[in-house]
Amino acid sequence: MYVTATLPLMQTRSIPPLRPRIARQRTLTIKPGKHLFLEGDAADKIYEVATGVLRLTRIMEDGRRQVIAFGYPGDTVGFPSDGRYHTDCDALVPSTLIVHRRADLETAKGDAALHQRLLRAALREISGMQDHFMMLGRKSSVEKLASFLLVLTDRVGAPLGDFDQVNLPMTRGDIADFLGLTTETVSRTFTQLRKSQIIAIDHINTVVILKPTALRSIAEGAD
Amino acid sequence: MYVTATLPLMQTRSIPPLRPRIARQRTLTIKPGKHLFLEGDAADKIYEVATGVLRLTRIMEDGRRQVIAFGYPGDTVGFPSDGRYHTDCDALVPSTLIVHRRADLETAKGDAALHQRLLRAALREISGMQDHFMMLGRKSSVEKLASFLLVLTDRVGAPLGDFDQVNLPMTRGDIADFLGLTTETVSRTFTQLRKSQIIAIDHINTVVILKPTALRSIAEGAD
DNA sequence: CGACGCGTTGATATGGCTCAAGAGTGGTGG
DNA sequence: CCACCACTCTTGAGCCATATCAACGCGTCG
């Protein structure tokens, strides 16, 4: 069997945000709480996150919500199907985005390199989602939260003394809806990891990874 | 809110299998139980299902399994990321596949129409997976099974008298691993739907949809 | 200062899991 | 053609992880 680190976020590995070279780039700023697009909107644009964090969600008629992904710098969001977006998308923190036309993804007629780039982002998204499946369908609450923290730390963690630290711009409810749990369970699971000295919690949204190895073995399903 | 039929399978809508026009197509036959590729294999080829049914799976070190998707005619499987496959893939029934080169997806240099076609398949896969997320994370067992049966019926159901009938080439275990349940729960849920006269079960793997409306309202979360 | 949103914690309920037994079902070889 | 075996499916009983319901603290913002 091929062993994979299980990665709940959209993408397996981050790619540095596109830096303008020759052509001027269309960019866009979006504030927390503001929607970039809604499910069902005609999808003309594709967005590449430059700074900030986005949230992609799906909502059922009765209000049940699933967070499909968090969009971090380097991530691309807004892949259309049948010309429409299939999730809602809003910002968790002030964010800046690079705007691409749908045509840049769909045809190689224009900027071939950009086309390639967007295509590759789409493929990365597919493989990232496959990890998320395993997590949603087959993992316990601790395993889910451990996996989540690990991926986030890998992608956007910052060293703090001997440890890695990670900031969580999303609420416990967002994490719950990403992992298929309730806020209460997420909160309890944080407490559990904190009490077993595997993580430390600074200000509600700042987690320090004290025992990365322990966290990793929890995520992979070691008892 | 934009209301979506929730669709657990890979793709929202089937597309007719590619029919050879000028160039000869490379095709391939695969028997039940045989693997088309494994997670981690170098991904040189992309496959379009012409006939049969494939199964895409992910397995954890301790044996927990997640069925990522079932590949029906018109579906495309084997999207690579970083040049590798990220799931295992085998056949549930004898299947024939149209083989494409990875380059056909990745560059528009060769057959532009084919490139487009594969790209669109990738985008459809992304949106299909988003539906699957909602199902895995937020639905009850009946809702899951109802959604599953509906999508399958839409895609590969056949009329039988006044009703639609659908064949299930996969085991209860496969369905369980697709829906994030156990075999026992899947079996019980089938029984429950059968006893409430919403479906009828012919030969273990043949389901007749007696009350599609009821099934639909269960899938969407009506109590 | 009050209100509201968010997070934590506790008590209890319950849906789906686990363990276990039996009933089909299909394949194989005598 | 039948007997046997392996495998899948079904059903039951009990349990456990997570949901639900509820209370409360804390920080933020008007």
Topology, please?
The structure is a homodimer of 223-residue chains.
Chain A: E1 27-30, E2 35-37, E3 45-51, E4 54-59, E5 65-71, E6 76-77, E7 88-91, E8 95-101, H1 102-106, H2 112-138, H3 141-156, E9 158-160, E10 163-167, H4 172-179, H5 183-195, E11 199-201, E12 206-209, H6 212-219
Antiparallel strand pairs in A: 1-8, 2-7, 3-6, 3-8, 4-5, 4-7, 9-10, 10-12, 11-12
Helix pairs in contact in A: 3-6, 4-5
Chain B binds a DNA duplex (30 and 30 nucleotides) through helix 5.
- Low-confidence spans of chain A: pLDDT under 50, at least 5 residues? 1-8
Number of domains of chain A: 2
Q: Give the % helix of chain A.
A: 25-40%
The CATH topology of the largest domain in chain A turns out to be: Jelly Rolls
Radius of gyration of chain A: 18 Å
DSSP summary: helix tally of chain A: 6
Structural class of chain A: alpha+beta
Order of helices and strands of chain A: EEEEEEEEHHHEEHHEEH
Account of the 3D structure:
The structure is a homodimer of 223-residue chains. With 223 residues, chain A is α+β, with helices and mostly antiparallel strands. Chain A has 2 domains: 4-137, Jelly Rolls, CATH 2.60.120.10; 140-219, Winged helix-like DNA-binding domain superfamily/Winged helix DNA-binding domain (Arc Repressor Mutant, subunit A). The first copy, chain A, contains 6 helices and 12 strands. In chain A, the strands form 3 sheets. A 4-stranded antiparallel sheet of chain A has the order 1-8-3-6. In chain A, strands 2-7-4-5 form a 4-stranded antiparallel sheet. The first copy, chain A, has a 4-stranded antiparallel sheet with strand order 9-10-12-11. In chain A, helix 3 crosses helix 6 and helix 4 crosses helix 5. The longest helix of chain A is centred in the middle third of the chain and has 27 residues, at 112-138. Chain A starts with 26 loop residues before the first strand and ends with a helix. Mean pLDDT of chain A is 90; it is low at 1-8. Chains A and B meet through strand 5 and helix 2 of A and strand 5 and helix 2 of B. The structure holds a DNA duplex (30 and 30 nucleotides).
